[in-house]
Amino acid sequence: MALFQKIVPTENKISLIERLVDCGLKCVEATSFVSPKWIPQMADHNEVISRVRKREGVSYPVLVPNMAGLNNAIKNGSVNEIAVFTAASESFSRKNTNCSMEESNRRVQEVIKAARSAQLTVRGYISCVIACPYDGVTNPTIVAKVTESLLDAGCYEGMSLGDTIGVGSAGSVHRLLDCILSNNPVERIAVHFHDTYGQALSNVLVAFDKGIRVADSSIAGLGGCPYAKGATGNLATEDIVYMLDDLGVYTGSGAKYQNSKRLFFRGLVNLGVALFRTFMFGTSGAFGSRPGNIFSSPASTQNPLHDIEVPSPPDDTVQALKFNPPIAGQPVFLVSGSWDSVIRVWQVNETGQCEAKAQQNVGGPVLDVEWFEDGTKIFIASADKQVRLWDLASNQMVVVGAHDEPIRTCHWVKSQNYSCLMTGSWDKTLRFWDMRQLPTQTSLATIQLPDKVYCSDVLYPMGVVGLANRHMKVYRLDSEPAEVKDVETPLKFQSRCVAIFKDKSNVMPTGFALGSIEGRVAIQYVETTNPKDNFTFKCHRSPELINGYQEIYAVNDIAFHPNYGTLATVGSDGRISFWDKDARTKLKTSEPMPAPVTRAVIHSSGQMLAYAIGYDWSKGHEGFSAANAGSKIFLHACDEEMKPKQKK
């Protein structure tokens, strides 16, 4: 509740805690004994913990930030368990507790020892275990050292490892837990994930697979640390209960929670949030597998991969395909833009089944689309030289700005200093548009380029733009856009698509993959001391020789898996291929579709790949016919197929 601006009535807080316990939850963090001067929302902590009805077998810990908070909790008389916190980051510690990390750990250990002397049970939190908003990536050995010190001081559940800004993914969590569990008992470790990039549930599964059986969450994913930039929300209670219940993992709250869900959302969710722990017992026969009908349809010549077909497809080739950003409580939506000048939106449920929700004709072929950060609006780049904003709630569309030639790409850029829309055009410019005043008359900034924009990607703070002259421009976008690199690509023919990838810790963008019409992909690191890190590989070529040669097909799109760093390529040969760039190996290639695959995008969860098939004009007007004039969109379950192969 700390992040709520409006003071939540005490009665509502107590009611929420008791309703959570009614659902079968065995541990609810009730309040915080922090100074009301710093967090006014918690000024009623004495009343809340005293008045809440205690149940046998349920714990109601309270958060204490320091010795003063502990003394107040002891004086209250109703407290039998506390939670303390520290950080694995120097800068975060100074901003959150106004002292060094070393001093913070010393103070916390003193609080633990005093609490134990007062016969209180103690639990701990470590913040920034994956990365810090100020210091960057956190070294797992630092987290392990802090964990061990607090275990030794007397925390019964060594620490809850907190991914405070939600940048962790399966890979980084796997590496962290391997380090932590090498010297610490698994039964004394818990996890606490924020869902900033939609990775929290997959991270819980990694922890479960490691033997961890305690995970923190909050109702509707609300809450977060008021002193952490980027801490946009906790893991939603309803999501983790639903997932674990479906996997057959007993939590003690699944059925009751689902039956009571309407009570939460009938007012209480708007009033407060209580952090609680999900206890995951036993193992699940369904772990790592799904029922056969998930993301699956009967095979046919039009659907050789048995994938889910999206209803009401476009009438012409799909040029753009995007999932909405992950936002707690919001359904999954898929948007497409196509050469028939129509933009379409579908809602996708958890089994991959889709329902057409909305569409608009924008008056010109759609060349790119982008979601606004709140998931309620869509930017549309069009061949009619205009970029528009479509508000889905009101169904209103407004022109954002215009170029002198068709607009090929659009990307939303959100930094600490500004937010804007970046567009790239065949008029040889990049433009940046201010969304605060619409319609805009002039762009915030314009960058003149030596040639037309053919492709681009943005993964903050990096932007990459591919030009018609086979040069790639790399920009930093964390302040005013600044060019940091201009390189001629190692590919010899027209650039078709580009996608930025992150470093091996899956935290910061570090390079890009570029695809061209020559059936080849280039892997390029922006900063490397070893030229051999950059390489190219052949793809989307006929498996057999034709008249003594391989048939070469264009690479139409590239998409990286958000958790594994592996990539998918799709091409004019109608195939989808999965690759591990770090191992420099192919993971899998699909059977050919009946038409070229023109676009592909992977959902932020990493579970599903959406792809479109249709005529891509790779064979010119001679290859066009009424039979291939339309387009189809499919959903494919991709997570297992895109996992890197284990090293022998």
List the helices and strands and how they pair.
Elements: H1 10-22, E1 28-29, E2 31-32, H2 45-51, E3 62-63, H3 67-76, E4 81-87, H4 90-97, H5 101-117, E5 121-127, E6 131-132, E7 136-137, H6 140-153, E8 157-163, H7 170-181, E9 189-193, H8 200-209, E10 214-218, H9 237-246, H10 254-268, E11 275-279, E12 308-309, E13 318-323, E14 332-338, E15 342-348, E16 354-361, E17 366-371, E18 377-382, E19 386-391, E20 396-402, E21 407-414, E22 419-425, E23 429-433, E24 445-448, E25 453-459, E26 462-467, E27 471-476, E28 482-488, E29 495-502, E30 509-516, E31 520-525, E32 535-538, E33 555-560, E34 567-571, E35 576-580, E36 585-589, E37 597-602, E38 608-614, E39 631-637
Parallel strand pairs: 2-3, 3-4, 4-5, 5-8, 8-9
Antiparallel strand pairs: 1-11, 6-7, 10-11, 12-39, 13-14, 14-15, 15-16, 17-18, 18-19, 19-20, 21-22, 22-23, 23-24, 25-26, 26-27, 27-28, 29-30, 30-31, 31-32, 33-34, 34-35, 35-36, 37-38, 38-39
Helix pairs in contact: 1-2, 1-10, 5-6, 6-7, 7-8, 9-10
Would you kindly provide a written description of the structure presented here, covering whatever features stand out?
There is one protein chain. Helix content is 18%, strand content 34%. With 648 residues, the chain is α+β, with helices and mostly antiparallel strands. The chain has a six-stranded parallel sheet with strand order 2-3-4-5-8-9. Strands 12-39-38-37 form a four-stranded antiparallel sheet, with no helix packed on it. The longest helix is centred in the N-terminal third of the chain and has 17 residues, at 101-117. The radius of gyration is 26 Å and the shape is elongated. The two termini are 48 Å apart. Mean pLDDT is 85; it is low at 226-231, 255-274 and 281-297.
